[in-house]
Write a structure and sequence with these properties.
By secondary structure, the protein is an alpha/beta fold. It is about 50% helix and about 15% strand. Helix 7 packs parallel to helix 8 (about 250-280) and helix 8 (about 250-280) packs antiparallel against helix 9 (about 285-295).
Length: about 400
């Protein structure tokens, strides 16, 4: 391979690695700066059906119900539906004995996964707007009002909030997790100016009831609903002040496994939905999905190709000495983060290079899992291993 070809491959790989993290946000910011969204006035609050799919959430489900039914939203305009997906702890008992009549328990047996649980809940939901949320994600006081307000605009079909992380002692996972959330918030707040979102936050988002379609067994709901809303001609919105608080992953290994599962499910869903997006000529949505999702999963191999080509180009130009030194420093920081975690030391935001490498590697792990033919239909609370059926691409 000639020097010019190696140089071309280096710059192409470096550009593809940088695009979803640097170039795409800059382009989004430039486009969003040219459009201002009007804030709709709320004449009456929509009736909300808060849907919680739960598996062995006895430790947090009581607090979840309290945060949903607190004073933050009109009490006569809300209900909470908890679908217990074969829980074996006290989740069912806690929900069933909740004295508030606005709470409904549905038992799903045998365990069939989150998508089946959500489909089952919608069958008895009375709300004009469906709120999807995690059992361990506690609503901020004004979260539900902020989430519901944009639906005063009839063009709005989906509104996403954001799930923030909190943990005692300021663990690295908390600092890095919130940094990642802030990056996602930056993207979504600019995507909302284009009326499309590259996915909602599964911890807290709302969907107009008329848009809901039954989910396939392994379809990840937050991405499927964002695509469905756009295909149906509705606008997507994001409000960073509609937020929840939840515990972060305990360590990078747990974060890696979580991202592998998410990427595998998202890849499977996009393989099914992207042809529909293209057939509908929703080019803006296709660009957002490619930039926000797909190209991000290829970060690790692009970085590997860039480093290999960079090493091969050493001595041909001083610039390549600088670029290989920059890459070496970054990976040294990542190794330092790994060593600190193994030693039980806290780095806070300094752990970002390590977690960035972990998340990037998870993109390849998730794509490999998808190509092997499946994604998990069931899930488990943070820190527990999921046990249940795996769903092949054909089954979804």
């Amino acid at each position: 391979m000639t020097q010019s070809i190696v140089a071309a491959v280096f710059w192409l790989a470096a550009g593809l690695a940088a695009y979803p993290w640097i170039l795409y946000p800059l382009v989004l910011a430039a486009l969003a700066a040219r459009r201002r969204l009007a804030v709709p006035s709320v004449a009456s609050w929509p009736f909300l059906s808060v849907i919680v799919a739960a598996y062995n959430e006895a430790a947090c489900i009581r607090a979840k119900l309290a945060s949903a039914l607190g004073p933050g939203y009109p009490g006569d305009r809300i209900e909470v539906i908890v679908v217990s997906d074969g829980s074996t702890d006290d989740t069912d008992h806690i929900v069933a004995t909740e004295p508030d009549p606005r709470v409904t328990l549905i038992r799903q047996e045998p365990r069939a996964g989150k998508s089946a649980a959500l489909n089952r809940a919608i069958g008895c939901a009375r709300g004009d707007v469906l709120v999807f949320t995690d059992a361990n994600a506690l609503f901020a006081e004004e979260a539900l009002r902020r989430l519901a307000a944009p639906f005063a605009d009839a063009r709005v079909g989906l509104v996403s909030g954001q799930g923030l992380y909190a943990a005692p002692g300021g663990r690295d996972a908390q600092a890095v997790g919130n940094g990642y959330v802030r990056f996602e918030a930056f993207l979504r707040s600019r995507e909302t100016a284009l009326d499309v979102l590259g996915g909602a936050d599964g911890a807290i988002y709302a969907l107009r009831r008329t848009i809901y379609r039954d989910l396939g067994p392994a379809e990840v709901n937050d991405l499927a609903h964002a695509i469905q809303a756009a295909l149906d001609g509705y606008a997507g919105r994001f409000d960073p002040d509609a937020y929840t608080i939840e515990p972060p992953s305990a360590h990078a290994g747990q974060e890696f496994r979580r991202h592998v599962r998410i990427v595998a499910q998202n890849a499977q869903l996009l393989a099914d939905w992207l042809p529909r997006v293209v057939a509908a000529r929703r080019w803006r949505l296709a660009w957002v999905l490619l930039s926000h999702r797909i190209l991000r999963w290829t970060t690790a191999p692009m970085l590997g190709v860039a480093l290999a080509c960079n090493i091969a180009l050493l001595g041909t130009h001083p610039l390549y000495t600088l670029t290989v030194a920059a890459q070496g420093a970054f990976y040294a920081l990542a190794l330092g983060g790994l060593a600190a975690e193994r030693a039980g030391l806290r780095l806070g935001r300094a752990a970002l290079p390590y977690y960035f490498c972990v998340v990037s590697a998870a993109g390849i792990g998730g794509l490999a899992r998808y190509l092997r033919g499946g994604a998990q239909a069931v899930w488990a609370p943070t820190g527990q291993a999921a046990r249940g059926p795996r769903v092949s691409e054909r089954a979804a």
